[in-house]
Amino acid sequence: MLLAMYSIFVFIFIGYMANVLRLLGNKQSGILLGFLVNFALPAQIFNGTYHASVSVDFLLVCLIALFSNLFSVLFVLFLGRIFRLERSVLITLCFMATFGNTLYLGFPFVQGALGEAQANQVIIFDQFVTGIPFAFLAPILLSLNGKTAFSFVEVFKRLFRSPLFLALICGVLFRLIPFEIPEVLFTPLKSLAQTATPVALFAIGVQLNLRGILEWKYPVLLLGAKMFVAPLVLFVFVRVFYGEFSNAWKMALIEVAMPPLVSGAAIIYKAGFNAKVALNAVTFGILVSFVSIPLWLYFA
């Protein structure tokens, strides 16, 4: 776990320094993100989906994790009403509390703490708890500010144009083939998939803005809901109904305790809500995760 945290920190720091020293321009950054979204991450998702062990119990884990995230949204709404937060801030906090950085950041955390088998399950977990819900809620958020009209047809079109979702579907379909694909055929795919984590962490580092930490009030409220209330709900559920944490539940606890999703901040910005709060929460949350995730694992 400590080695994984060290690697995560180094890749994010390299990305941050590349931004500070202006070693990357918009053109290079766009190429990097294009490679990540269209090639490296789909390879990782396809490989993980094909090799992951999925059962009804695992689907229950995903469902409880999703409920835990939604509970944190209710917590934000409750406090928002008490403190009479303005509409733009409240919508931003609720949307960002719904989604954690379950793939870019969560995958290396789980891989370092629990091993390759659980890391493969993260791929499917991410799509059920983050990817697919995000694909539905993002257009709704954009429609709230009149940026675009919400349409289920457009949502499904966008979903089936997504390389990440298509990689998931292909992985599931290949699992249904009545014979096992030789592992040697996965060698180049695994090599491509191994580039996803360092490139994703590097991209996170490029987007970091540490000056935003000084504006802490709203980010602290958001991170309290996303990184404390949500995992606490899951933690209590497991203790009450199971007594102890299996590796699958530990994986879910790590993922639910992840800081807000970087892509969520981009949608907030595009929709015209409070992008500064969203970006500050993402930055602050990444730093907090280096302390909070080991603590949650310790108590589990």
From TrEMBL:
Domain of life: Bacteria
Transmembrane intervals: 6-24, 31-52, 58-78, 90-110, 122-142, 163-179, 191-208, 220-242, 281-299
InterPro entries: Mem_transp_PIN-like (IPR004776), Na+/solute_symporter_sf (IPR038770)
Keywords on record: Cell membrane, Membrane, Transmembrane, Transmembrane helix, Transport
Subcellular location(s) per record: Cell membrane
Signal peptide range in chain numbering: none
Classification via Pfam families: Mem_trans
One Gene Ontology cellular component: plasma membrane
Record's bilayer topology term: Multi-pass membrane protein
UniProt GO BP: transmembrane transport
PANTHER family recorded: AUXIN EFFLUX CARRIER FAMILY PROTEIN, SLR1864 PROTEIN
Family label: Belongs to the auxin efflux carrier (TC 2.A.69) family.
Protein name: Transporter
Organism encoding this protein: Helicobacter winghamensis
